[in-house]
Amino acid sequence: MTSTSPAPHTPRAAATDPVRLLRSWAPGRGSWLSGPRGSLLTRGTLTRPSSADPDAVVRCLREVDAGRPAGAEPALAVGALPFDPDAPAHLVVPERVERAAPLGTVLVAEPTGAPVSGVLRSVPAPERYEAMVAEALARMASDGLAKVVLARGLEVVADAPVDAVRMVRELAHRDPRSHLFAVDLPGDTPRTLLGASPELLVSREGADVVANPIAGSAARSPEPAEDRRRAEALLASVKDQHEHALVVADVAERLAPLVDGLEVPDAPSLVATPTLWHLSTELRGRVADPDVSALHLARALHPTPAVCGVPRAAAHTAITEIEPFDRGFYTGTVGWTDAQGDGEWVMALRCGEVEGDRVRLWAGAGIVPASRPADELAETAVKLRTLLDALGLDEA
Ligand SMILES: C=C(O[C@@H]1C=C(C(=O)O)C=C[C@H]1O)C(=O)O
């Protein structure tokens, strides 16, 4: 790690207005994260951990802390881990951190300014995605693959540089209760990963650990009775319950050695985004060893079958062979971890990457033997709406 002067002390539970924090974010200056437990704005780069290995990150944070006055807030590392656990992660120890209450408690005004106009390209074409699902189903019949999550992407070439600030405010306006994020990515030109995810990978606060896998989805309806019917059909769906149970079993198995008193609900509950119903299970426990940080937990769980599959290695191979693009940070995890081990990591879903006049966005769906290609394509189209709506684009 490189080191510079110690960061100024920021009070842990600053009574900052969460909307002011959101309004202070701009690409190239730091990261903004917001979820049901609070929001966080970071600025500048004090140092970068030498690797994203959790032990190295915690060591780096403790070194930063050692140079700070007693009672200062613990140093933290913020950033993103890619889908591929072997690909380079992006973590920085920021110069300054500001915290605020959850954004979900306040109304975020609809941003002004023109939405994006430009050209959209599907990667791959929608029919090709259906063929990809069919290929996954064929592999399942022959090689013991129980679940694989297949994604597709959209590439937007806009008529002018894309306003990432407007997109983030639009996401916050539409779904302030989701896990919102805007994180600068490394590269020669400024790149921002931004999104509104429904899924918490894992959080640690003191000894308390929460993981909240989500899998199994149904499009919502603007008509209340139909909306309710779809939610109940999802809860009763044998296919979706199976798809969900595979994820919960994997998360529980990987958490078990790290967590005491793991509580795993017997059945999932429903959660809603503005566009989708999902099956959700909240697992809770307490870290067995205080040195197991939120980042250790995230590394142990990622990539869960909510974004990869079962068995993990076979699903990862199938994804690499079938998907015609590199996922990068999509279906990776975004968050922070501090010197005491607290932190929160959310799944990089319903997200896009903004770079100049380009935006890349992705959505995927869990494929199990009972999946049908046309239904999975439709599900990805609904998932893509989150970012398309933030862009003000109509297609897909
Ligand atoms: C892969 C995505 O979402 C994941 C897959 C889901 C599913 O298959 O039902 C639901 C939530 C997420 O865990 C995505 O949004 O792109």
UniProtKB/TrEMBL annotation:
<feature type="domain" description="Chorismate-utilising enzyme C-terminal">
    <location>
        <begin position="127"/>
        <end position="383"/>
    </location>
</feature>
<dbReference type="InterPro" id="IPR005801">
    <property type="entry name" value="ADC_synthase"/>
</dbReference>
<protein>
    <recommendedName>
        <fullName>isochorismate synthase</fullName>
        <ecNumber>5.4.4.2</ecNumber>
    </recommendedName>
</protein>
<dbReference type="GO" id="GO:0009697">
    <property type="term" value="P:salicylic acid biosynthetic process"/>
</dbReference>
<dbReference type="InterPro" id="IPR015890">
    <property type="entry name" value="Chorismate_C"/>
</dbReference>
<dbReference type="GO" id="GO:0008909">
    <property type="term" value="F:isochorismate synthase activity"/>
</dbReference>
<dbReference type="Pfam" id="PF00425">
    <property type="entry name" value="Chorismate_bind"/>
</dbReference>
<dbReference type="InterPro" id="IPR004561">
    <property type="entry name" value="IsoChor_synthase"/>
</dbReference>
<comment type="similarity">
    <text>Belongs to the isochorismate synthase family.</text>
</comment>
<keyword id="KW-0413">Isomerase</keyword>
